[in-house]
Amino acid sequence: MKEIINLLNNAEWSDASEYAAGTRKRVLHDEDGVKTVLLNFPAGFYMEAHSHIHAEQHLILKGEYISEGKVFHEGTYRSFKAHENHGPFESKKGALVLVIWFPY
Hints:
Layout: E1 14-15, E2 24-31, E3 34-41, E4 45-47, E5 55-67, E6 70-73, E7 77-80, E8 89-91, E9 95-102
């Protein structure tokens, strides 16, 4: 049986020191090069443009962020290929983003 995760359990969130101060994360899955993480961006979040060796997907669950001069709202899905430069990312009011990295 697959593990059941309560996404509203705040005790299982941790500081995401690899991101801007105040960012919190919740790792949902991390196995065989596939990683699924909830990121909670604080108001004033900013991250420089970057790329990864893996492909990446975003689903904005709450709030919004600005990237490449466009505002991406709640409900937006985005996909980036491996080695594709993406960003910068900014969130004026904060956002909750589901991020999935995968090696293909």
